Amino acid sequence: xxxxxxxxxxxxxxxxxxxxxxxxxxxxxxxxxxxxxxxxxxxxxxxxxxxxxxxxxxxxxxxxxxxxxxxxxxxxxxxxxxxxxxxxxxxxxxxxxxxxxxxxxxxxxxxxxxxxxxxxxxxxxxxxxxxxxxxxxxxxxxxxxxxxxxxxxxxxxxxxxxxxxxxxxxxxxxxxxxxxxxxxxxxxxxxxxxxxxxxxxxxxxxxxxxxxxxxxxxxxxxxxxxxxxxxxxxxxxxxxxxxxxxxxxxxxxxxxxxxxxxxx
Length: 264
Hints:
Layout: H1 3-26, E1 69-71, E2 87-91, E3 94-95, H2 106-115, E4 131-134, E5 137-146, E6 151-152, H3 153-159, E7 167-177, E8 181-191, E9 193-198, E10 201-206, E11 217-218, E12 222-224, E13 227-237, E14 243-249, E15 260-262
Antiparallel strand pairs: 1-5, 2-5, 2-7, 3-7, 4-5, 6-14, 7-13, 7-15, 8-11, 8-12, 8-14, 9-10, 9-13
């Protein structure tokens, strides 16, 4: 036989032999119900591999509100080191079925919020734990402190197993001042669109599809008066994350921190 033809044949035979050895050394018996399994002729000698450990589901499946928030207490709370307000009374989300964030123009926001307002008195302070009827839905007010500088509304919806897309959120907090704090600006970063009021007056509107960016938009100068000041927020979101952050800045652009927050 020609040596050139013999070499490939020998190589093939060696390879086949190695494959047979590998199969005998490492193959495991078939699983239940398969050919040669318990229902087949070789069940008595079959070897089953070890059971795989359960694969945990990705992310948080507990719907625990304490992962991102803590229940507020009657003790007044200062803003965080960056001046961000973490304590809010928040109403469970109002389902609006708005699927597109681009629809949220300034006129659309004003019309929608006016038609789905929990109170025409913009200085009203909801009661923690109370349930109200709004837009045909029974919704609960919760007093919560965010664990982060921002208040993540999507995480709130997930934790309470409520609506997450096409939603409107109402929030209220009380700012307590020992003296008048003049010439400050409300500074906010909503996702995706929002409106903001201080002591009953609209001070800022942010339409459109925005991401949460600290100090994305600021109001005209205003005064936080001595005593209680009521801040109201409305956040609307179609799809994706719903979120916002808020603080006050002084004339130099530095965070204002000489006040406390409460929910009553």
